[in-house]
Write a structure and sequence with these properties.
By secondary structure, the protein is an all-alpha fold. 78% of the residues lie in helices and 0% in strands. It is built from 15 helices and no strands.
């Protein structure tokens, strides 16, 4: 053995090779995930499973029978009618508002944006109370409406107003970011090529915002069909006349007709499930479209 080899061997024995670092296990992610699962289980999953269990625990026959009851069918018709009126009106309002807020800079723009967000912040019950104070018998317009035999509160018009209010911001809030991202270059190019405002809107603006618009329409429809607080205040909850599907659930449960209440709740839950699936699809399409823009 040479001297160099002997020296190298002595150095190796004095300075052994470092051992790979052992990764310490952290319990923090496990604890956080456990808290999240426990919270979702108590607040969402277990109540939802409970609703489906009580709706179907006697079989499919009683469930289908509850769906054919006249009061239930009337509530479904009322809910569909509210959505059929509120969604198109809010789409028109949302498009006009979004276009003005995204493309124009004017004094009071921030205030207008805050007003659009007002239904997110205010309680639906307070919104219903505002409608009663305006259009009720003792409200500002009450005497004027009574003289002409027009009934707003505790009738279908007040339910429409309440639904319009609570579902107002969704289209505007979804379309505004898309319009701001697009800018006005394409619209100005269309104008220089001879297109008028209407042609530019349908052939340039609408195709660019279609996914955001569809997302807003979806959320507006879901809120219109599921609204309870504001509609409850202004409708009077008259069975077969001014009772929407969420009000039917409450009335049936309070009347100890729990199977009918759970059956209607299942229908609303399925509506929410369809909304979530469509929302996920539209989010992916919107995300893919935005990536193409960059």
């Amino acid at each position: 053995m040479t001297d160099n080899t002997l020296e190298s061997s002595m150095q190796t024995s004095d300075n052994p090779a470092p051992k790979p670092a052992v990764e310490k296990k952290s319990w923090v992610p496990v604890v956080l995930i456990g808290i999240a699962v426990l919270f979702l289980g108590l607040v969402l999953y277990i109540p939802a499973i409970n609703v489906f269990y009580f709706a179907f625990h006697r079989g499919l026959g009683p469930f289908l029978h509850n769906l054919t009851e006249p009061n239930f069918i009337s509530a479904v018709r009322m809910t569909l009618a509210l959505a059929a009126i509120a969604v198109p009106i809010n789409v028109i309002f949302g498009l006009a508002t979004a276009w003005a807020l995204a493309n124009k800079r004017f004094r009071g723009r921030t205030l207008l944006l805050s007003i659009v967000d007002l239904p997110f912040a205010i309680s639906p019950v307070v919104a219903g109370l505002m409608i009663v104070l305006l259009y009720g018998r003792q409200g500002w317009f009450g005497p004027f409406l009574q003289e002409r035999g027009i009934q707003i509160v505790f009738a279908f018009p007040a339910m429409v107003l309440a639904t319009l209010f609570v579902s107002m911001p969704f289209v505007a809030r979804e379309v505004i970011p898309v319009l701001e991202e697009e800018g006005v270059d394409q619209e100005e190019a269309a104008y220089t090529l001879g297109a008028n405002y209407w042609q530019t809107f349908w052939r340039v603006t609408v195709p660019n915002i279609r996914w955001g618009l569809l997302y807003g329409v979806l959320l507006t429809n879901a809120r219109a069909m599921g609204e309870f607080g504001a509609v409850s205040v202004v409708s009077g909850n008259i069975i077969g006349k001014t009772q929407s599907l969420p009000l039917f659930v409450e009335e049936a449960y309070k009347s100890y007709d729990t199977e009918a209440a759970y059956s209607a709740a299942v229908l609303l839950a399925l509506l929410a499930l369809v909304t979530l699936v469509l929302k996920e699809i539209l989010e992916r399409k919107t995300g893919g479209y935005r990536k193409k823009m960059h």
